[in-house]
Design a protein that fits this description.
Length: 582
C-alpha cells in the first residue's frame, strides 16, 4: 500500500481519541482553559450526561476576535514559545490540542470577548470544519458550547458507559477543581437542576461541607507542611472516617489534578497500621513543587506526571501526612484486663506484657470482601449444602465478638455480626416477599448531605430503598432526609446505613436489575447488624442463636462469609490426645 499523508480531518480525530476520551474529558480541558484565563466565575451546564450538551462559561480574559480561529487550530497555544518552556510549565494547558480535538468530534461554538473590545466574536466548528467569524454582543470572557459529542464517530458513543457513570465522572471532576480553586465560584447544572454551587470565598472547609456535609467537614484534619522546595496543604480524614475504595483520594500538583501511584502509595503508607484492611482515607492534598522538578508532558490528558526526585517527594508526603495524623489522633489507652501473663511456648522464657491476643485489629464487618463474594448475593430460599444447624446451648461470649455454644456434635463458634446479618436479611426478605414491611417514623428526621456524584447514585435507587420500608426524600441540593426506617432496624443509625449504601452503589458501573432488591437488603443488614466488639447480654445471645437456628441458610451471611466454625467432638479428642488413649 502506498504511503500518504493523513487528511487534517482524520489527523484531528486521531488526536481527539487521546484527548477526548469521554464527556468529562471535554469538561476538564475547558475548565483548565478557563482557570488559565484567570476566571473567577465558571459555570458548567450539561445535558444527557454531556452527550447532547456541554457548555462552559467563564469571566476570564477572553480571546481577541482576530485570534479566535487560530485558537481552534491544532498546536496553537499562548502558553509556550520555545522548547525550553516545556520544563517550566506553570499553566494547566500548554499542548494546544484541546479545542481542535473537541471541535473535530462535535458541533462546537465558541463565543469570546476581551475587555478592550466593544463586542465579542463567535466561531462555529462542526466536525473540524470552521465557519466564518461573526460579531456578537457578549460579556467579557469565553463561552464554549459543545453539542452532540461524537456525532461523527458513532463507534466512540458505544464505548461510553451509562449516563449515571458519565455524570458521576463530570461531577467528581468539577468538585475536585472546586476544592483546588476555592477562590473561584463554580456552578454546575444538569438540565435545570443545580448540582454544585460554591461561594468562591476561599474557604476550603466550607466547600467540604457543601460536598460531604457539615459533620464530615468538621472531622477532616488539616495538613500544612513546608520543607525545602516542597509544600503540602489540604485535608485528610481521621482514621474513623474511611471509604471502601480509593475514589476519594485526590492529589493536585501545582494546581493540576494528577493520578500518580507513588503519591497514593505514600499516603497509604502514612496510614499504615491505622486503618482496617480494605478501607481508604478521604483526602484532598495540594502539592506545590518547582515546575522544573516535575514533567507534566507525559500523556495528552496531562493526568500523569514524572518527578525528578520521586523518592524525596514520596518521603515528604508520607512524613507530612503521618505527622498530621499523629498530631490529631489521641494516644490509645489499654484496658487493664489486657495486662497479664502472655503465653509463650515452653521453649521460650515467660514474660509479663500485654496480651494482644485479646485485642482484635479488625472488626468483622470491615474485613475485605472479594469481588466473588459480593457476587454471591444470597437470596432467601437459595440452596446450599448442610444448611441445617442443630439446637445449640449457649455457653457465653468471647472477645465481645464471638458466641460460644454447645451442640450435640461438638462446639460452635458464632460470629455475632455475620449471624445477625443473616437473621436480619432473611427476616427482611420474608417481609418483602409477603409485601408487608412495617415502617417506623423517626422522632426527628435525619438529614444527610452527599457529594454530587453520590447524590445521583442514591437518587437512582430511591424507589427501591423506599420499597424496603425506608422513607427517604430529597431535601435540597445533594441533601436527603430520612423520615422512617423498617421496624426491623429500629434503633439503628439511618445515616450510617444510607452512607454505606451510597458507597456500594458507586461500586456498580450499571444499575442492578434482577438482584437490586436482594443487594439493597444485604447492604442495609450489613450496616445495621450488631458489630464485633459489642457486648451482648445473655438474653440477646440466646435470642440470636434461636433466630439463627430458624434461618434457611444459617451457615453464611448474605455476602458469603461463614457465620460459624464447628469444632467436632472427634477433633477435640484428637487435639487433647484422648483419641485412642489407653
Amino acid at each position: 500500500m502506498p504511503i500518504r499523508l493523513l487528511s487534517n480531518e482524520v489527523a484531528s480525530q486521531i488526536a481527539a481519541g487521546e484527548v477526548v476520551e469521554r464527556p468529562s474529558s471535554v469538561v476538564k480541558e475547558l475548565l483548565e482553559n478557563s482557570l488559565d484565563a484567570g476566571a473567577k466565575n465558571i459555570s458548567v451546564a450539561i445535558e444527557d450526561a454531556g452527550k447532547v450538551l456541554i457548555e462552559v462559561a467563564d469571566d476570564g480574559t477572553g480571546i481577541p476576535a482576530d485570534e479566535l480561529e487560530l485558537a481552534t487550530s491544532r498546536h496553537a497555544t499562548s502558553k509556550l514559545f520555545r522548547s525550553d518552556d516545556l520544563f517550566h510549565i506553570k499553566t494547566l494547558g500548554f499542548r494546544g490540542e484541546a479545542l481542535a480535538s473537541i471541535g473535530s468530534v462535535s458541533q462546537m461554538m465558541m463565543t469570546s470577548r476581551v475587555e478592550s473590545a466593544k463586542e465579542g466574536a463567535r466561531i462555529k466548528i462542526e466536525g473540524g470544519i470552521a465557519s466564518k467569524i461573526e460579531k456578537v454582543g457578549a460579556p467579557v470572557g469565553t463561552v464554549v458550547r459543545v453539542e452532540h459529542l461524537f456525532y461523527n464517530v458513532p463507534a466512540r458513543l458505544k464505548f461510553l458507559k451509562t449516563d449515571v457513570t458519565e455524570r458521576r465522572a463530570i461531577d467528581s471532576l468539577v468538585t475536585r477543581y472546586a476544592l483546588a480553586y476555592p477562590d473561584v465560584r463554580f456552578k454546575v447544572t444538569d438540565g435545570k437542576q443545580v448540582t454544585l454551587q460554591t461561594a468562591g470565598d476561599g474557604d476550603r472547609r466550607a466547600i467540604l461541607a457543601a460536598l460531604y456535609g457539615v459533620d464530615v467537614a468538621k472531622q477532616m484534619l488539616e495538613v500544612m507542611s513546608d520543607e525545602e522546595s516542597f509544600k503540602l496543604s489540604g485535608f485528610i480524614s481521621p482514621t474513623s472516617l474511611t471509604r471502601s475504595n480509593r475514589r476519594e483520594i485526590t492529589f493536585f500538583i501545582n494546581g493540576r489534578w494528577v493520578q500518580d501511584s507513588a503519591l497514593n502509595a505514600a499516603l497509604l503508607q502514612a496510614y499504615h497500621t491505622l486503618l482496617m484492611v480494605g478501607r481508604y482515607p478521604l483526602t484532598t492534598l495540594f502539592l506545590e513543587i518547582s515546575p522544573e522538578d516535575v514533567d507534566v508532558n507525559v500523556h495528552p490528558t496531562k493526568a500523569e506526571v514524572r518527578f525528578r526526585s520521586q523518592d524525596k517527594i514520596f518521603s515528604f508526603v508520607q512524613r507530612s501526612v503521618r505527622k498530621a495524623l499523629l498530631a490529631y489522633t489521641p494516644v490509645p489507652t489499654v484496658s487493664p484486663q489486657l495486662w497479664g501473663l502472655r503465653y509463650v511456648p515452653q521453649s521460650e522464657p515467660r514474660e509479663i506484657g500485654i496480651d494482644w491476643s485479646m485485642a482484635h485489629d479488625q472488626t468483622a464487618d470491615d474485613r475485605p470482601q472479594t469481588e466473588e463474594s459480593h457476587q454471591q448475593s444470597a437470596v432467601s430460599g437459595q440452596e446450599s449444602l448442610n444448611t441445617n444447624v442443630p439446637l445449640l446451648r449457649l455457653i457465653g461470649q468471647i472477645g465481645a465478638t464471638y458466641i460460644v455454644a454447645e451442640g450435640p456434635d461438638g462446639l460452635y463458634l458464632i460470629d455475632q455480626h455475620a449471624a445477625h446479618e443473616r437473621v436480619l436479611f432473611e427476616k427482611l426478605m420474608a417481609q418483602h416477599d409477603n409485601k408487608n414491611i412495617p415502617s417506623q417514623s423517626l422522632l426527628s428526621p435525619e438529614v444527610i448531605t452527599f457529594p454530587p456524584q453520590s447524590a445521583k447514585a442514591l437518587t437512582e435507587q430511591l424507589p427501591a430503598l423506599n420499597h424496603f420500608g425506608f422513607e427517604v426524600e430529597e431535601f435540597g441540593t445533594n441533601t436527603f432526609q430520612v423520615r422512617a426506617m423498617p421496624v426491623l432496624f429500629s434503633g439503628g443509625d439511618p445515616a450510617l446505613a444510607l452512607k454505606a449504601l451510597v458507597e456500594d452503589f458507586e461500586e456498580d458501573e450499571s444499575p442492578l436489575q434482577t438482584e437490586i432488591e436482594a443487594k439493597i437488603a444485604g447492604r442495609v443488614c450489613k450496616r445495621l447488624a450488631v458489630k464485633a466488639g459489642q457486648v451482648l447480654t445473655s438474653e440477646e445471645q440466646r435470642s440470636l442463636l434461636n433466630d439463627l437456628e430458624a434461618c434457611q441458610n444459617p451457615r453464611t451471611c448474605p455476602h458469603g462469609r461463614p457465620t460459624m466454625i464447628h469444632l467436632s467432638v472427634d477433633m477435640l479428642e484428637k487435639q487433647f490426645g484422648r483419641k485412642g488413649a489407653r
